[in-house]
Amino acid sequence: MRKMFIGAVALVALTGGAEAGWVGKASYYKLGGRTASGGHVGAYTAAHRTLPFGSRVRVTNLVNNRSVVVTINDRGPFRGGRVIDVSATAADALGFRSAGVAHVKVEPVSAIAEAQ
């Protein structure tokens, strides 16, 4: 019940205003083991510090205007100034894998309330 409440609060907080979301740096990562949710890094997955696992967000590279929708299944990034870590495949689609970091906007698409 508590996770469902937190998920609902996160969704309301993110969709409440015209400027919903985050703007900052994104990086990419490849993991060999499991993510914080117990899953694996997939083609279009990402790590975020606070969004509930299963939430989907649109990440837009503000330099080239490319965007992808990723599913949050890990925690992070833990480096200052970064708002999201995306999978290597998502970084390729966003056009910043060779650079390693990009200036992005992160917008909520949906939040999954986990009723466990």
UniProtKB/TrEMBL annotation:
Organism listed in the record: Methylocystis iwaonis
Q: Does the keyword Nucleotide-binding apply?
A: no
Ubl conjugation among keywords:
no
Q: Which Gene3D superfamilies match?
A: RlpA-like domain (2.40.40.10)
The role this protein plays is:
Lytic transglycosylase with a strong preference for naked glycan strands that lack stem peptides.
Return the similarity comment: Belongs to the RlpA family.
Sorted alphabetically, which keywords does the UniProt record give? Answer: Cell wall biogenesis/degradation, Lyase
- Recorded protein name is Endolytic peptidoglycan transglycosylase RlpA
Q: In what residue span(s) does the RlpA-like protein double-psi beta-barrel domain sit?
A: 24-106
Q: Which NCBIfam families match?
A: rlpA
Q: What is its EC number?
A: 4.2.2.-
Highest taxon above the source species? Bacteria
- PANTHER family found in the cross-reference section: ENDOLYTIC PEPTIDOGLYCAN TRANSGLYCOSYLASE RLPA, ENDOLYTIC PEPTIDOGLYCAN TRANSGLYCOSYLASE RLPA-RELATED
Q: Which gene encodes it?
A: rlpA
